[in-house]
Q: What sequence folds into this?
């Protein structure tokens, strides 16, 4: 998917935030030509994984 599609899929994040994820190695990006980046939906889904909690997801 394109950068615009990836940003929208991730909840409307900014281009700067998307590039930070790439630079930090948290999100793989695939270059097409000199300037075009593409993303796999499975990589975006992995970035959106739930954060584990101490209580196993239960609210005390």
A:
């Amino acid at each position: 998917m394109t950068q615009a599609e990836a940003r929208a899929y991730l909840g409307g994040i900014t281009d700067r935030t998307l590039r930070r994820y790439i630079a930090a190695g948290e999100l793989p990006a695939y270059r097409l030509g000199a300037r075009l980046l593409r993303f796999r939906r499975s990589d975006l889904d992995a970035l959106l994984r739930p954060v584990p909690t101490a209580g196993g997801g239960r609210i005390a």
Summary: The chain is about 40% helix and 10% strand. The mean pLDDT is 91. The radius of gyration is 14 Å.
